[in-house]
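I'll show a record.
***
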Amino acid sequence: MAYPVTVQGSPGFEKSTTTSAKHRVGQKMELPDGRVFFYGYTGEAITAGKLCMTTATSSGHIKDLAVAAAAAADATQIKVTNATTAITGSGAYTGDFATRGDYQDGYVFVNDAAGEGQVWQIKDHSTAASSGTITIDFYDNDVVATALTTSSEVGLAKNPYNSVEVWDLSDIDGPCIGVPNRDIASGSYGWFQTKGYAAVLTNGTFVVGKNVMTGSTTDGSGDVMADDSSAEFLIGGVVNVGATTEYSLVDLNIRG
């Protein structure tokens, strides 16, 4: 089944939230005014206007997983030996998208040896216990370009919109992936804005026309951009200034 690259939405679509999936996690939506959103699943309750991040990949899955069987060029799946953290497999796609595996719609990349540098999005995958074998299927038309051997090593990454969390400055798990326009309950689906005008929780003193970064003292907030190592992740430029602890209007430029 093919899915549109971008959903063309109408104002208000970005505020819909459900407990069952209506789109693929990571689906892009654009509104007529150019605002861009991505569809995600929450790992915790998230308040409107708070900056969010992707969840962390298990430390044992980040890199150096052994390819369990050689994969020739043009192969449409690979087999990988799991580390110590069990992996829950995918359910088959249905009208309601069924059960999502831990890494479904995420990524697998070759970090070392034969075939290194290749990346594939994961269509679905099997369950794998500690030290078990996980079978990873690619999306239609995607294949192994350079053959893999049992010396090849790979890493896994979840889809950035799987189990979204509030930006936690004391425990940064990944890049900033957007801002919701409404409150979204834990374990629910909704839209995260990445481009265009958005209300963002404010920390400190914003300045019109200046850049904004992810906050360095308050979870979920933005800070005025600093010219030093405290700058974490550039999110956009200030349009209207709100007082600290309130919300400012920011022209987001996180991802297109």
In short: The longest strand covers residues 189-201. Residues 211 and 237 are 4 Å apart (CA to CA).
